[in-house]
């Protein structure tokens, strides 16, 4: 009998980006949709390769999504409360990425980094469209 190998949370957590992708498609925010697909794709490839390959495309796609999220917030006039909720999740993501991730439980904390990144993107989209 074969057993399924447990999928690391740092890999499966890329699925959190499906929610902002659906919102981007719904509101025809094609740059967001393309960047989110790139983040999902390169993030999965990076983690599937045991973090040996796809480092640069993973980082570049993530940075481009961050920049685009800032553009959406600017174009949305930093509309409250959505912009401030995005800022809150950004602060939490940096706590996880730069502090807790280094303290152990990398798989869990990196997965939470993906969760917060997806939530930031959702609220940046809301800042622009609502």
What does this protein look like?
- It is a single chain.
- The protein is mainly α and 130 residues long.
- It has one domain.
- Helices cover 72% and strands 0% of the residues.
- Helix 2 runs antiparallel to helix 3 (30-48) and helix 5 packs antiparallel against helix 6 (106-129).
Keyword list:
globular, mainly alpha, single chain, 130 residues, 72% helix, 0% strand
Query: How many individual helices?
Result: 6
**H and E order:** HHHHHH
| Total number of domains | 1
The rounded distance between the terminal residues' Cα atoms is 52 Å
Unreliable stretches: none
Instruction: Indicate the radius of gyration in whole angstroms.
Output: 15 Å
Helix content: over 70%
Number of β-strand runs: 0
Q: Tell me the structural class.
A: mainly alpha
Mean pLDDT: 92
Profile the largest sheet. none
| Structural shape | globular
Tell me the fraction of residues in β-strands, as a range: under 5%
Secondary-structure blueprint of this entry?
Layout: H1 9-12, H2 18-26, H3 30-48, H4 55-75, H5 82-98, H6 106-129
Question: Nutshell version of this structure?
Answer:
By secondary structure, the chain is an all-alpha fold. The chain is 72% helix and 0% strand.
